[in-house]
Amino acid sequence: MTALSSENCSFQYQLRQTNQPLDVNCLLFLIILGKILLNIFTLGMRRKNTCQNFMEYFCISLAFIDLLLLVNISIILYFRDFVLLSIRFTKYHICLFTQIISFTYGFLHYPVFLIACIDYCLNFSKTTKLSFKCQKLFYFFTVILIWISVLAYVLGDPAIYQSLKPQNAYSHHCPFYVSIQSYWLSFFMVMILFVAFITSWEEVTTLVQAVRITSYMNETILYFPFSSHSNYTVRSKKIFLSKLIVCFLSTWLPFVLLQVIILLLKVQVPAYIEMNIPWLYFVNSFLIATVYWFNCHKLNLRDIGLPLDPFVNWKCCFIPLTIPNLEQIEKPISIMIC
C-alpha cells in the first residue's frame, strides 16, 4: 500500500511537471496566434491610400515582431529541447522570449506616441520636404533605432535582468510585465475625450441629429449641412471640436468603452497583448484629431492634401443647404479633412 501510494505520488508529480508547462506554452502560442490574426485583419481593413507616416511603419514592424515570436515559440514547442549555435533551447526559453518582448513592448508606448505626434506636426506644417524615397528610409531607420534602443535598455537594466531569471529549477510560473505607460496613456486619452465631450456636448448633440451618412466618390462619408454664406475656414474651435468628436467616436466608440472598462476595473493586461495594432491605430486617430484641432485656424475646406487616417474617415461634407443632394456637386470642393 505504501509502495503504491509512493508510485502514485511520483506519477502525479511527473504529470504536473510535464503537463503544466505545456499548457502554459500552448496558451502563449494560441494568444500570439490570435494576436497575429488580429494584426492581419486590422492591416487588411485599413485604407491603402494613406500617406507615408511613422505610425504605419511601426505597425508593420510590430506585426513582424509578433510573427517572429510565434515562429520561435512554434520551433521550441516542436523540437522541445535542441541546440543551435552552441545554445541549448528548452521550453523555458518560450517564457523568457515572451517576457523580453513584454518588457520591450511595455516601454514603447511613450516613445511611439511622442514620435508619431512630432511626425504629424511636421507633416502638417510641411516644414520637412523630403523625397518619397528619403522619407521611407527615414521612417524605416527610425523604427529600427527605436526597437534597438528599447531592447538594449531592457536587456541592460539590472532589475529587469533579475526578474528574467527563473526562481528555481522546477518553477513553471511565468510572470509577464504589465506596462504602466499604456495605463497612463489610456487614462490621458480617455480623460481628454471625456472633457472634450462634456465641453461641447450641446454641439455634438446638434450634429448627431443633423448628420447624414451617404456615399460620395465611392466612399461612405458623414456630412453636415451648413448655410450657403459660410466661408471655407474653420472659425469656431468649439464647433470644430464637436465635429472631430463625432467623426472619432463613429469609428472608435467600442474601443473607447473597452478602455474605460479596463481602467475602471483595473484589469492587468500583459504588455505583449496590450501593445497591438488596433491600439496603435486608435492612438493614431487621436493624434490626428488633436493636430487638426490645434491647427484649425490653418485648415481650409478646399485643401485635400492633409494627412489621411487609415480608419477614421475625417472627410466631412459640409454641403450648402441650397443643394438638395450630393449628385449635383461635380467637384469635391466641399470636402473637408477634419
UniProtKB/TrEMBL annotation:
Membrane protein topology class: Multi-pass membrane protein
Residues passing through the membrane, by range: 27-45, 57-79, 91-116, 137-156, 176-198, 244-265, 277-294
Segments forming domain G-protein coupled receptors family 1 profile: 34-292
Source superkingdom: Eukaryota
UniProt keyword terms in alphabetical order: Cell membrane, G-protein coupled receptor, Glycoprotein, Membrane, Receptor, Transducer, Transmembrane, Transmembrane helix
GO cellular component: a single term: receptor complex
Functional summary from the UniProt entry: Orphan receptor.
The name this protein goes by in its record: Probable G-protein coupled receptor 160
Organism: Papio anubis (Olive baboon)
